[in-house]
């Protein structure tokens, strides 16, 4: 029996799976931060460049400020940034110099752990990114083995990728990233030993989802097999298409004979916070999911399960994925495969309409496909006039040119935002000023009432009174 460590995922993955990455802002982050720090997590799965873009675009909040303040509030718990290769905020592939600047700036602001999840499971690409990170800092780097089901993604495929990453002195640990929640306890019995056999003394972690009820069961099997840490969400941010719920996982691991060395009172407080926050803000609450064997074939992305669980599009998903070389159903490939499947079902014939992103994928702009695209599909893509246009489009300019174009006097933080986002969105973020730093879910009903009353045009005086509380607002001409 082993001592199992925990990585908390609510602020990043729980927020993304259940709340479209919109449920968390700076105030909510900083309110729960001191509690998270007390628990004793191995790390906090904190942000990605996508979440940083959401902070600017939808919250008008500075993501760099959020990272800095969170790092100050959690001085002993590493904050993790999830990277999907050579991109930062924009989907456009960035130059090595640009990515080096992004990683360096993230570390300077408080990120001390990076998870590298190449969408094509390209181990060589992960090694290259890890080398870049370590050249400018001492962050802890975790290489991902992105799990999926296909004829080419067998145990040998993953063992080969794990061996390459484990041999890199710049990768400190590996983790199995199972975005579809597809890893069953039975598959884990061969899959996990195959990985552990080739990575030496480097730790292995497991990150799974509860989408079809397998994620939590795979955690218990993984603990018996030698995984060092499992990644969990808390309270309302867990279950559903999110990650296994931390309190239940801890209780079951202990019952099964493992030890989990954390502050249980603080852990319960974290779960209460996210549950109360979801109730106050009207956000979805994750619930245990039933097993759905059809998911093993279509691997529909979690956010699309509700509207597309059955039907012709679901069947077409599997065909498209095979024809495109078995891409892993994770961002950005999940969106590409789903869009192409919809186009194939609704169009006059299959591949009569091919989206730009699928063309870019075929052109290699998202890295090397796992397997060659089906010849008849590739021929059709390459014959399109649009393909010639996209093949000729310039990539992101190199770093000196971008600096010159955007502004040489900007801080690295502002430059990185302006290089990857519309200027108006960054301007609006700056105009909004510092983000609020405190959130109390118990105040939500009162504040909601006040907003509704203020919106009425037939009132000039409002008084809200409770025992020990009195607020009076009056309009003056």
What features would you describe in this structure?
The structure is a single chain. With 477 residues, the chain is an alpha/beta fold. The chain folds into three domains: 277 residues, Aldolase class I (TIM Barrel, Alpha-Beta Barrel), CATH 3.20.20.70; 98 residues, Cyclin A, domain 1 (Orthogonal Bundle), CATH 1.10.472.90; 30 residues, no CATH class. Helices cover 49% and strands 11% of the residues. The protein is built from 22 helices and ten strands. The strands form two sheets. The protein has an eight-stranded parallel β-barrel, surrounded by six helices. Helix 2 runs parallel beside helix 4, helix 2 runs antiparallel to helix 11 and helix 14 packs across helix 15. The radius of gyration is 23 Å and the shape is globular. The termini are far apart. The relative contact order is 0.13.
How do the helices and strands line up, and which of them pair or pack?
Elements: E1 5-8, H1 10-19, H2 26-39, E2 43-48, H3 49-59, H4 63-73, E3 79-83, H5 96-109, E4 113-116, H6 123-136, E5 140-146, H7 155-166, E6 173-178, H8 185-196, E7 204-208, H9 215-225, E8 229-232, H10 246-255, H11 264-281, H12 295-298, H13 305-308, H14 312-323, H15 333-346, H16 356-362, H17 375-382, H18 385-392, H19 399-406, H20 412-420, H21 423-432, H22 444-455, E9 461-466, E10 469-474
Parallel strand pairs: 1-2, 1-8, 2-3, 3-4, 4-5, 5-6, 6-7, 7-8
Antiparallel strand pairs: 9-10
